[in-house]
Amino acid sequence: MDETSGLTVFDLLIRAGALISLLGLAGLVWCIIFVARGRRAKLPDDEMRALLRRAIPLNLGALFLSVIGLMLVITGIFLS
User: How confident is the model at residue 7 (pLDDT cuts 50, 70, 90)?
Assistant: First the structure.
């Protein structure tokens, strides 16, 4: 009975993907809070546009992290 109790590469892939997805989700929540604070401050139109210009790349980066993490999770599930 040769039973291994360690993690396989696929388990690590799933866990890493979940962690990356959670980081992306945290980034998305941060972007929502960042823009909501700007809206609540009732900034002038030019300042609001500048705020959104700063938030959009961060939002896309967070979305990218979430997608990559989910791809890792699905790949780990399929291969295990």
Answer: confident
